[in-house]
Every structure is written in C-alpha cells, then in structure tokens.
C-alpha cells in the first residue's frame, strides 16, 4: 500500500487507473480507524479494483469550540488497518495541502443541513460537503462508501452527488456496534469507564421507541418525550442535543408517523457527543 500525501499525486495516480479502465473505490475517513471503518473498507474493496482510503481530520467541519485539537490520531495504526483491509492507497494530506491560502469556495446543501447535526453544528456540513467534493475530484471514484451512523451526512452526500451530477455511486454501510449495542465511533475513546457503561442506553432507548411505533404509536411528540424520559432515567449525566424523527431522505421533521421514519439522537456524555439512529419501516 502506498501512502500519498499530496492532492496532485493522488489525482495523477487515480486518473492513470481510470485511463487503464480500473474501477476506483473511495472510503473517506478522519482516521483512528475502528471496526466501523473496516466494514466500509471491506465493502468498498468488494466493489472496486483500486481502493483509496483517505485519512484526513478535516478542519473546516469543526466549529470553533469543538474537538479538532483533541481528535484522536494513530497514523501507524491506520496505515496497518488500511493495508490489512485491502487499500491500495492511503491518502493522508496535511491541512495546508487541502486548503491553500485564500481558499474561498464551499459546497453547501442548506435544506438538508437545517435539522439534526446541522442545527447544532452550523459549519459542519459545509466542511463535509466541501472536503468530500474535493476528495471526489482527486480520487475520481466510481464508488464511495459512507457509514449509516452519520445518516444525515450520507443523505446530504447522496443529494449533493445527484444535484451536481457527480459520477459516483454512493453506498451506505450499516452501523457496526459493540457487543452491548453502542455504535462504534472514534469519539467513544473520550468516554470514561462509568460513561462507557451507560452509553449503550442510547441504542436501547431507540429500540424501545421503534417498538412503540411498530405497536401503533403515531404521535411524534409522544415518541420523542418517551425517548427523552428513557435517557433521563438511564443516562442521567447525558445532555441531549436532539431526539428527532425525520424523513430518512430529506431529513425534514415529520408531523405524524405514517411512512418510513428515521429516529435520530445526539447526546453528549462527558467529553463525547454520541450519535445513533434507527430506520423504522411503518
Ligand atoms: O464521516 C467522516 O469521518 C467525515 O465527516 C468525512 C466523511 C471523512 C469527511 O471529513
């Protein structure tokens, strides 16, 4: 596996592969690779001839008070993991190589950014859309794989690709969980032992809410209140950022549950802001 540091080198390599008729796959990550990322790489590997894994903690998707400086890193570990999961290239640029002086062009998708994480992290999706577009221009992938834990991110990228006619197939990969149900995340590393013990209740609350909906509950506010009460009881130190029910494709809030719905939550537990969601077919 080759480690590539500059955008120019990555683009030249991928364009050469494309000229040879190779099918290129891309897995964009911010590193500190765990089993969730491994599932993304394995899926992408099965869909392409040449696999690029990017490891880049993208500064533009972090707000001023967020964890950019503390975000966990493990370059050697990531190199070994990417190689073991079939990457041909690990792209690991410096921030200055991705954002030159005077960078002034952004990709935004305001409607899908309005709710959930977009509401509490105002610059986040502008940074995600911009860096993912840049990675698409550099790697020229035929297929790119993203995790469903960041469901809103996946929905926005699908829409961005459709609206801008970007010729890449976007594949969503189901959430990978710990044995106790906690969604795998690089940010789980921030949890203390006591916080870690309560974190699986995030998933348990969602499963109970899904059970209520499947049993006939149609009132959105009643479901949201139920989940909030569950979290107040089972994760007392948790600070709820949001508990919402949205249309899985448009991320618009739903008034009543009368079709497929996504129940999505973000809860701050200590230093970690944890996300989880559940897709409920009605
Ligand atoms: O999901 C992530 O890790 C990031 O948002 C992404 C897609 C790699 C863009 O920086």
Average pLDDT, rounded to a whole number, is 98
Count up the helices.
Answer: 11
Strand order of the largest sheet: 1-4-3-2-5-6
Largest sheet data: 6 strands, parallel
The residue ranges in which pLDDT falls below 50 over 5 or more consecutive positions are none
Give the distinct bound molecules.
pantoate
C-alpha geometry: globular
Work out the radius of gyration. Answer: 19 Å
As a percent range, the share of strand residues is 15-25%
Total strand count, please? 9
Domain count: the total is 2
First and last CA, distance: 45 Å
CATH H level, superfamily name of the largest domain: HUPs
CATH topology of the largest domain: Rossmann fold
Secondary structure class reads: alpha/beta
Order of secondary-structure elements:
EHEHEHEHHHHEHEHHHEEE
CATH architecture of the largest domain: 3-Layer(aba) Sandwich
In which range does the helix fraction lie?
A: 25-40%
- Name the CATH class of the largest domain: Alpha Beta
Notable features of this structure?
282 residues, alpha/beta, Rossmann fold, Pantoate--beta-alanine Ligase, Chain: A,domain 2, 2 domains, three-stranded antiparallel beta sheet, 11 helices, 19% strand, globular, binds pantoate
Overall description:
This protein is an alpha/beta fold and about 280 residues long. It folds into two domains: about 1-175, HUPs (Rossmann fold), CATH 3.40.50.620; about 185-275, 2-Layer Sandwich (Pantoate--beta-alanine Ligase, Chain: A,domain 2). Helices cover about 40% and strands about 20% of the residues. The chain contains eleven helices and nine strands. It has a six-stranded parallel β-sheet with strand order 1-4-3-2-5-6, sandwiched between helices. A three-stranded antiparallel β-sheet has the order 7-8-9, covered by helices on one side. A hairpin with a 2-residue loop joins strand 8 (about 260-270) and strand 9. Helix 7 (about 125-140) packs across helix 8 (about 150-165) and helix 10 packs antiparallel against helix 11 (about 220-235). The mean pLDDT is about 100. The chain binds pantoate. The site of pantoate (PAF) has 10 residues, from strand 2 and helix 7.
């Amino acid at each position: 596996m080759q480690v590539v540091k500059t955008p120019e080198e990555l683009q030249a390599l991928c364009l050469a592969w494309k000229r040879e008729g190779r099918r290129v796959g891309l897995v964009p990550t911010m590193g500190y690779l765990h089993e969730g990322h491994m599932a993304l790489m394995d899926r992408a590997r099965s869909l392409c001839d040449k696999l690029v894994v990017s490891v880049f903690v993208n500064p533009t998707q972090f707000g001023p008070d967020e964890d950019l400086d503390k975000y966990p890193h493990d370059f050697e570990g990531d190199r070994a993991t990417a190689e073991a999961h079939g990457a041909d290239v690990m792209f690991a640029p410096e921030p200055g190589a991705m954002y030159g002086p005077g960078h002034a062009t952004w990709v935004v998708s305001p409607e899908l950014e309005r709710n959930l994480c977009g509401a509490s992290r105002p610059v986040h999706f502008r940074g995600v859309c911009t860096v993912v577009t840049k990675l698409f221009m550099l790697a020229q992938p035929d297929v790119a794989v993203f995790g469903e834990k960041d469901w809103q991110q996946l929905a926005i990228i699908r829409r961005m690709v459709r609206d801008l006619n970007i010729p890449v197939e976007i594949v969503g990969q189901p959430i990978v969980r710990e044995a106790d149900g906690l969604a795998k995340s690089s940010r789980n590393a921030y949890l203390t032992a006591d916080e870690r013990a309560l974190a699986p209740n995030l998933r348990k609350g969602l499963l109970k809410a899904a059970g209520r909906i499947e049993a006939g509950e149609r009132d959105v506010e009643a479901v949201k209140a139920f989940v909030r009460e569950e979290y107040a009881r089972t994760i007392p130190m948790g600070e709820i950022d949001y508990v919402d029910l949205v249309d899985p494709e448009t991320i618009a809030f739903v008034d009543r549950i009368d079709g497929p719905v996504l129940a999505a939550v973000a809860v701050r537990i200590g230093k970690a802001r944890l996300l989880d969601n559940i897709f409920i077919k009605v």
